[in-house]
Amino acid sequence: MSIFILIIGVLLFICLVIVHEAGHFLVARRNGVEAEEFGIFFPPRIYKHKTKKGWIFSFNALPLGGFVKLKGEHDADSGKGSYGAASTWAKTKIMAAGVLMNLFTGVILLMILAWIGMPQIIPNQFNVSGASHISQQEVLVTSIQPHSPAQSIDLSAENQIVAIGKPGHLQKVNTITDMQRMTAALAGQEVELVYKNNGQTISKDIRLQSAAVVAQSLKTNNPKGYLGVTLTALTIRQSNWWSAPIEAVGLSFQVLKLTVIGIGHALSGLGQIIAGLVTGNTKARENGQSVASSQVTGPVGIFVILKDSSVLGYQYMLFIIAIISLTLGLMNILPIPALDGGRLWLTLISRGLGKTLSTSFEETVNAIGMFILLALIVLVTIVDVHRFF
Predict the structure, then answer these.
(1) How many whole angstroms separate alpha carbon 210 and alpha carbon 212?
(2) Which helix (H) or strand (E) is 239 found in, with range?
């Protein structure tokens, strides 16, 4: 089942690219600008098809985004149907369309999730007080300690803990606190543990670590638990029909705020790296690398996140896709050369100065921006491979 959800997640991620580029494509055509190519991902091309209306649809090899190639994309172009000949307002709408489509998609996905069941992932996650209820609570195993009671019964990551207690006197486990309280009370005793593995309910007898062994281990670099597992709590909250749109918008603002904070931390880390290189301060450079790399991820990291969320269920997958959509919208409006925001702000600044961008200047700025962007993607991919594998 998780493989199926993962495939759906990857397809939905591709759909985010399509939705973004469709915004540019549709708004450009509505404003009299001709589109020459609609591309999924970046070249080299894998597949292309020329439509009856003359524009090319292409599917490309590098999974780094997508693009719409417009006629006469340089600001100095003046031919009929070209982007350069369009008004400043038309250019603003065309560049902003992809951003708005991603933001709109993220809000819609969160609204659907609020109706069917929203995962509670973010600390103090936004919700309308009194307008929702917990529809599902699970405690999942995330890792197993070596030579622990859990390892002796082949308990594994992603198993759901259902109940624990003296044989014949089981107590249901709803939260991590429940598990901690019950294992501490039953320390050193023979207990019955009920858990789910791939949907199958399993019951096994097991002897927990004693309180003395656990207490002694806390004084070492290898602390032990009574059962020997680390746990994560999964909570699904379902909203009323009228509160779902409010929660979707409120949560979207919360996600965007956290994204801005994350970008700030990443830039701070980058600053520490540069300062460390200039001054020769190795500790500052290493600290900066740690801070910056913890705030960003690339194609490899996105795939790993989608894979991990697919194990948790379709709600978690949709939640991650919604967050990615909102983040794509925000990143693309920032003044980063080669991205939508960079092109838009460059145009608006030039218009404010009463000038038209020269072809050579525009190409140089976008080329430098693309080079830096691709270099960062390569760097982040290397970090992701080291982090996840």
Answers:
(1) 5
(2) strand 229-239
